């Protein structure tokens, strides 16, 4: 049996191509079915355990379909309002978004890898999908189930807006599937930027771009983590109000479980709201009302919910609120540290580190990337809960993203340059033994008292170079002088470069108090390639042997 399992190859026949496309389509259908079924099981459990259900199982399943569409960012429509005007519900619990993204990612990755299964077998030939086939097949199958869920939820109490669902469901499926095929294809750098100009693609594959991307991600994690700390602290501060709202909203245990699960699904939203609060712009509490560290502006229109009871409403600016800008300050420091740990790693000499301009540009790019990511998170964390005063809730995406970029660039770049200067401050190259310091020609005692010399910092564990070891013999290789404690120290550094070698020999001579050999490294630390054999040594390289008496 012939197996064609190479990822991304052209399939040999139209029949095998259609078989692989059908397999990818089925994977997309299964991924959507798993997400929809998970929410359906949860809703049915709550419906069964409710002592006084208001509707039958069909209505409960339609609610589950609506919640599944809401997990993709689609707006729901609530018709049973007091005013009779349909009210949109667009505040998406961000924890639910992780479910469809993970399922589509997994389906696309397995469509590329095969996952040990046969994607299509036609005439004894096993085929694995190409990149485009896996992507479009999974997305098509997922969207087909989304269309069916939209039609099914239409007659329920919380139907989804057709326009919003048609926009968000394919977008979420495409994002997850793109990540899946990219992961299965070995994460090639620049492969997702084929539509971008050549200069952008070349910049995206450079190591400095990866460093900036990693630092931006660390800054986003610091901001969201700090926002979560602020939200948790506010919840503890208003524990009484949150406790009362929790028990007033639901009288039985199934209802309380539903409220607790909804609060858990909204926990990432609360973390992003806290980050926006710490950054300064704050978040909207209804049309015309905004909460910032300086106080609450306008009249908030808040629904009755435990997390909402923890919001700083009706409170003036207090010192505890003014301390919240510590969140972006910490994020800027994190961005600087993640930038400098590659730009100027430990044990790096000044000639081997990035320049001031390169370090500043990388930190600035990381700050801009952090701002862009926070803008996306702010857009996902907010949304309307009705009409009129309830039409605006959550942080404004462009204000949150712009402020995050300003904070991280303004503070991150100076912090990165300062940390770089601190790491590259004047220091004696470490790793030279006391014997090497005493071997200079200027007198052993003077060289030994010239200054403290750190020893055994660069040398291999268990190797020569510890205090008291005999280092007079030739070394096996120049690798004895390489830093091995931190792997990042050797990244991008050519330790065998002639310029770097001369700098180290000159530093050794200075630490030794001078040498009588005219600036040449002592024999006790000369690598083998620099040490001439005794049989071929020139006459002037050492002390002349006494002439034999005639």
What's the quick description here?
This protein has helices at 14-49, 57-70, 94-113, 131-153, 162-184, 198-204, 207-237, 239-249, 253-265, 267-279, 306-309, 319-322, 326-343, 356-381, 397-423, 434-438, 444-448, 498-511, and strands spanning 3-4, 76-78, 87-89, 120-122, 125-127, 283-285, 290-292, 295-297, 393-394. With 550 residues, the protein is mainly alpha-helical.
What report would you give on this structure?
With 550 residues, the protein is mainly α. It has 3 domains: 3-198, no CATH class; 207-423, no CATH class; 434-527, no CATH class. The chain contains 18 helices and 9 strands. It has helices at residues 14-49, 57-70, 94-113, 131-153, 162-184, 198-204, 207-237, 239-249, 253-265, 267-279, 306-309, 319-322, 326-343, 356-381, 397-423, 434-438, 444-448, 498-511; strands at 3-4, 76-78, 87-89, 120-122, 125-127, 283-285, 290-292, 295-297, 393-394. The strands form 3 sheets. Strands 8-7-6-9 form a 4-stranded antiparallel sheet. Strands 1-5-4 form a 3-stranded mixed sheet, with helices on one face. It has a two-stranded antiparallel sheet with strand order 2-3. Helix 13 (326-343) crosses helix 14 (356-381). The longest helix has 36 residues, at 14-49. The N and C termini lie far apart (91 Å).
